[in-house]
Amino acid sequence: MLATDEYIARELPRWRAELAELLRFRSISTDPAFASDVQRTAEWLVDRLERAGLAATCAETGGHPVVLGRHTVGRDAPTLLVYAHYDVQPPEPLDEWQTPPFEPTVRGDRLYARGAADDKAQVILQLAAAEAALATDSLPINLILLFEGEEEIGSPNLVPFVRMHARDLKSDHVLIADSMMFAPGRPSLIFGMRGLAYFEIEVRIGAHDLHSGQYCGAVPNPAHALATIIDSLHDANGRVAIEGFYDDVELPGPGILEEWRELNFDERAFQMTAGDAALLGEAGFSTPERLWIRPALDVNGIASGYAGPGAKTVLPARALAKLSCRLVPKQDFARVQQLLGAHIERVTPPGVHVRVECLQGSQPWRADPSAPLFSAAARALESVFGVPPVRVAHGGTLPIAPEFADLLQAPVMVMGFALPGANMHAPNEWFPLDHLEKGIKTMTRLYTMLAQ
Amino acid sequence: MLATDEYIARELPRWRAELAELLRFRSISTDPAFASDVQRTAEWLVDRLERAGLAATCAETGGHPVVLGRHTVGRDAPTLLVYAHYDVQPPEPLDEWQTPPFEPTVRGDRLYARGAADDKAQVILQLAAAEAALATDSLPINLILLFEGEEEIGSPNLVPFVRMHARDLKSDHVLIADSMMFAPGRPSLIFGMRGLAYFEIEVRIGAHDLHSGQYCGAVPNPAHALATIIDSLHDANGRVAIEGFYDDVELPGPGILEEWRELNFDERAFQMTAGDAALLGEAGFSTPERLWIRPALDVNGIASGYAGPGAKTVLPARALAKLSCRLVPKQDFARVQQLLGAHIERVTPPGVHVRVECLQGSQPWRADPSAPLFSAAARALESVFGVPPVRVAHGGTLPIAPEFADLLQAPVMVMGFALPGANMHAPNEWFPLDHLEKGIKTMTRLYTMLAQ
Predict the structure, then answer these.
(1) SS (H, E, C) B238-283
(2) I want to staple A322 with a disulfide (CB 3.0 to 4.6 A). Which of A63, A301, B72, B272 is the partner?
(3) Which residues of A are less than 8 Å from B270 in CB distance?
(4) Which of B304, B322, B359 sits opposite A302 (nearest CB)?
């Protein structure tokens, strides 16, 4: 083990440089304009996997490619599949970044860039851990590294891919290398994440925009109608007001809920990460409960008419909203889509046309936190961070978590090394510089522990 | 008079070319990026006025310049001041234009371009009428042409300008050469227009955008709060729900309302100009009443988070709305601003910060439709169009109308030659080609009638 740590210490500067290189790729999966950037990122990863000593392939899918790296010991050794993703969110709004999103910049002990936390640092640390273990003859298990290029658009092609290659990808443990620790110095293991149902709503009144003076007061306004619809989605207690929305919600066992009461969730620190936003939500639940085990609905964007500098007296012809529900077991995104559609039909004011489209759907996921992968990872984390990890859930969505559990019939765990307040999906995203090394070390220890 | 008409027939092709030239200037007054385009437009107009035989000046203001052209007969002759504006609205959304907004294009009997109807064709026809009358020795009155460059941003500098030069601009009649006819073949004289109070509302929850998975359900959403505010602004009868909003509303005399019942306002034609939008508004009023004598409130734009292609799971930090009230006598925009501010304070949900800013305010205007200017113009229009004009009001706003009446103590009338459905402030704005000549002829006849 000492030799591996020495190798890690020696190669760390190169891996940092490689991380910076990876962060410069504009691998924005949602925007077709960046498709070739995503492709080049995948090819770069294949090259790095090969140099690390793994058998690497760039597997085409219906969309952006899946990158695979593989080290095989033999049938008797256990197999660990590690998942991460190399695509990123769009960087907008650009003017709120202190330094350009695709020019990685170190300030203090943080590395800033789009994708730094979500998920490129974690891609590099998995790659580096495999390289370090191989180079020092310390990789006693079968390892499959699977890097996806479509996580930020709901993984439309990964499930068919995993299904088609289920035999090749057969594993005893699945680690999803994404997400973050509970707090600085407090690593965590995640056993549950929320699902997602993402919608686009368009309200239209006519064929084209109008001069507001000539029509104001005599035709419906699509932004009014959209506001009526959005306002109807919550009641005064912060609950989602869509009929039937909570029908299938299942809480975790009381043991977990009691454990969480001892967590000392730091509301003030959380609030600071939220840009000092107020902490408000569904009445009767704590902040971690609202995030981890309660469903919620948020508007992700709205647009209509003119919102640039100055005044434009236009009466817009259409208004658009993007909104999404975070779902918990055992809600089903297809059923939520039906419920939302029926609700909108009921509340839409007269004289406007509404289109509701589901852009993404991912089921919620919850694992058994007593599986062997969880205990091995707990020991690995404790040996690096000096404290045992806490068992938590997470408010975000990893579409592939429930799918891996289902398709590979293996326990799934999520372990990430970003920190709260990392500004994932927002301007000034960052990753703690020292967690690159800590993550690499945790992984090399985990390989050994899984072989025991 | 025959000589003047002959001159007009001969020079019409050149004036058409000059109109196309004027339409190519991007004189977008609201966007500082186009300030030099606005300046160049003013200089071009000074040159054309001089060539037409008028004494021309480009008068600097605190913003975009005022262009003045003047012909003086003597103290005994009456003075007509004609106002028009050479600035235009922004052309967005660009992808809805069939041909580029600043490349004037003839299709059928219409000329398409940003500013074609509002107000550049009317600028050219006033210029051409003065030229034709002067060239044929048929301008028996004092004439002042005043072309503004800030109409589309609420004329912030024109009132100080007119006040400062009130003695120089002293007139017996004021004609505002903007707006449109009642219907094709039915000219109209406008004696009332609505005022405007234009607001920007910003809702903010924190310092920066958030990852919706990590915060959804635990912090307020600014787009929800904005929707709550917007939805609260109307009741179920389509009335503005701001307390006190209707307190000062004064209807015109019953004579006018009766006249309008005979107008045969063509609802279907109006609906077609509105891109086939439904005709809906305040309960208990007809469409022309809703437009001409009832106040109204419309959202002109909203923006928050991500509204581009695909899905982005962002929880936005702020949401913005532009909204405006059209006001009727004797509402006051400053009082409406107070009422709106108090309303928003009352309905804003907890946990968000709201800023309300008034970007523009213009008082409503109503004139006496029996003034001599109205009867002279009625005769001029009838001699060109073959039918007498109808007396109507208009839903739009010309900030300078009430100001001219007040500062110059002269009767004000609005007469325009665009047609309903001209797409003012919207994509594919157009002006009827033959109205250039008809407008020029109407003006040359009006000069003569005012001298009688």
Answers:
(1) CCECCCCCCCCCCCCCHHHHHHHHCCCCCHHHHHHHCCCCCCCCCC
(2) A301
(3) 218
(4) B304
Contacts of residue A259, defined as CB under 8 A and 6 or more positions apart, other chains included, come to A391
Average pLDDT over residues A359-386: 93
> A-B interface: how many C-beta pairs under 8 angstroms?
382
Least confident stretch, A93-97, B83-87, B367-371, B434-438: B367-371
pLDDT at residue B2 in the model: 57
Q: Residue B247 CB: number of other CB atoms within 10 A?
A: 10
Q: Do residues A79 and A373 touch, judged by C-beta distance below 8 A?
A: no
Band (pLDDT 50/70/90 cuts) for residue B1 is very low
- Residue contact A219–B274, C-beta within 8 A: yes
Among the listed ranges A34-38, A211-215, B59-63, which one has the minimum average pLDDT value?
A211-215
| Best A204, A287, A314 residue to mutate vs chain B (most B CBs within 10 Å) | A314
Q: Tell me phi and psi for residue B63, to 5 degrees.
A: -130, -125
- Distance of alpha carbon A438 from alpha carbon A443, whole angstroms: 9
Nearest CA in chain A to B310: A30
Instruction: Determine contact, residues A365/A418, Cβ cutoff 8 Å.
Output: no
Q: Mind telling me how many Å the CA of A311 is from chain B's nearest CA?
A: 7
Is the previous residue joined to B119 through a cis bond, with omega within 30 degrees of 0? Answer: yes
pLDDT digits (tens, 9 = 90+) for A322-349: 999 999 999 999 999 999 999 999 999 9
> What is the pTM for the complete model shown?
0.79
Distance between CA A271 and CA B206 in Å, rounded? 9
pLDDT band of B253, cuts 50, 70, 90: confident
Cβ-defined contact of B306 to A301 (cutoff 8 Å): yes
A351/B278 Cβ within 8 A: yes
Residue of B313, B217, B306 whose CA lies nearest to A397: B313
Residue among A216, A234, A420 minimizing CB distance to B296: A216
Interface residue of B181, B211, B268, B398 to substitute, partner A, most A CBs within 10 Å: B211
Q: CA B302, CA A257: separation in Å to the nearest integer?
A: 41
Distance between B278 CA and the closest CA of chain A, angstroms: 5
Q: What ranges in A300-393 are assigned the alpha helix state H? A: 333-347, 372-385
B171/B408 Cα distance (integer angstroms): 7
Residues B252, B393 contacting (CB under 8 angstroms): yes
User: Which chain A residue is nearest to residue B305, measuring alpha carbons?
Assistant: A301
Asked if A313 and B207 come within 8 Å (Cβ–Cβ), the reply is no
Of the candidates B30, B206, B291, the beta carbon closest to that of A274 is on B206
Per-residue pLDDT at A6 exceeds 60: yes
